[in-house]
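ugh ok so i messed up the first submission bc i forgot one of the chains. this is the corrected input, ALL of the components this time, i swear. 604 residues overall. if the numbers dont match what u have on ur side tell me asap before i send this to the collaborators (the ones from the other lab, u know who)
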Amino acid sequence: MTEDVFLADLLGRLPAADSSIIVPPGDDCAALDLGGEGLLLLAVDQVVGDKHYLPEDTSPEAVGRKLLARNLSDVAAMGGTPTHCLVASATSPGCGGDWLARFFDGILEMANAHGVQMVGGDLACAPSDNVASLTILGRVLRERVLLRSGARPGDVLLATGTFGESFVTEHHLFFEPRCREGVWLADSGIPTAMMDVSDGLLLDASRVCKASGVSLLLDCPSIPRRRAETTLSQALSDGEDYELLLAVPSHAAAKLLADWPFDDVLLTRIGRFVERGDGLVLDEGGQVLPVEGYDHLDGTRP
Amino acid sequence: MTEDVFLADLLGRLPAADSSIIVPPGDDCAALDLGGEGLLLLAVDQVVGDKHYLPEDTSPEAVGRKLLARNLSDVAAMGGTPTHCLVASATSPGCGGDWLARFFDGILEMANAHGVQMVGGDLACAPSDNVASLTILGRVLRERVLLRSGARPGDVLLATGTFGESFVTEHHLFFEPRCREGVWLADSGIPTAMMDVSDGLLLDASRVCKASGVSLLLDCPSIPRRRAETTLSQALSDGEDYELLLAVPSHAAAKLLADWPFDDVLLTRIGRFVERGDGLVLDEGGQVLPVEGYDHLDGTRP
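and heres the new structure output, hopefully the right one now
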């Protein structure tokens, strides 16, 4: 069973959302209207030793940095600004107070850089594994929030950055979450949908398609790859890119690309959404691309 | 190093709280003013297999129930009402989709009973352990929120329920968090401080003392014990009672006890705060009671 299948079943068993829940679980963040200015964004993400990083090769600071950065990417994907976080850690007997202090150093340095305040935590020990989770809070104006479900036939697909070989390059540890880019894109008022790529470009693009009830013609040769030697397959399926995918009305794409103010981050047109309700991703020749990506529930590729 | 020492150091390294943070981390919940009605309460807590429950003896539903109930107890201790939660789970290879579905059943049944909406989650697999964390959101009126730090010399200490032998009686799995009692107490406007007992009556009472800058004369014989055979030592130090401790001005205690509307839950006077700034807990004879309780950071008694 994949995470998507399990979550779809789980979400189907939830009671009806109350009126505070503007964006229910299933997107990069949930969004609540608690009566203040704008919406409260909420998401939770984990890092698990030997799953999301190799304990022997990864400094505790890098583990903490990655944990927060993954969550920042989720807020960025909604067009939001991160504000507060809570951290829970269960550490193995081999990781004592020094490991834990350095792990929190990694979180705090990243938190300070993004103006995020840590407002809660829980510390436990685990028999043998290292597991940490972080809940992120953010805010976004209601008229600016971007969901996965807004892509329309005819919209083009844009992507920030480059794809593939995230693990071998250590991009998965030291990536810069696209916070400023996400806010700029939301403020432009132009994108119709957005999400971040954590589980692979192809799998996450297919999630936009399914949520929006459209399909996608992916222009594979135009996908920017992380390195010269990165293969198309790696760019499509490696995952942990933490880049943004966004849908944009075709008439507005040229202006958005021309106005893009971030010289150090690519913004590239890589596809076009089409009116086909089965949520498939097709290549330029119309062949269905088989979806592969990391499945976090069973630790394998589905 | 104990969790308290580690957290005190960590909190000292946090940047200055921004104006949104009304109650900083260190209490049962943090409290934020995000501009809506009242304050947003936030806390996170974990359950770890072989630390907080015995996997072979505990149903997945009971694990999920306990995870949410622990967090509900934190909201109750602030006088708040729980509203939303997010769940992260990292499950071992031996716990597949069926285990996970039943674990979420346990959460959802408790959530429905308390009007809590689940708005986010993350699923991962771990190499060998089972770790789950839950972030709870709640709300409380600003003039009603109860902290650990408000106890004053002369206040009496009241406690809900009974203490000791939480594990052998399975109270630690099936306790009822004192949500309605916490709200009733906050609404009375009478208590000056409140917290919940998770790490042992003595350790948690000493935390109220330290936060309030007072000491406590504990009337040990009056402490209600869970069973007839429960010893005083068990009542003082076993932990996982999930009862409420509250400080009340002595002139108001009799009326509060008389007005207590919950026939199925004890409310008992068990001590008196005194003007002595070293935050000690003393018995009726003035002897210092050595603090013992479960330390979640290293899994031992400090």
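quick check: Chain B touches chain A through 68 residues (CB under 8 Å). that seems consistent at least. Residues 146-282 of chain B form a domain with the Phosphoribosyl-aminoimidazole Synthetase; Chain A, domain 2 fold (CATH 3.90.650.10).
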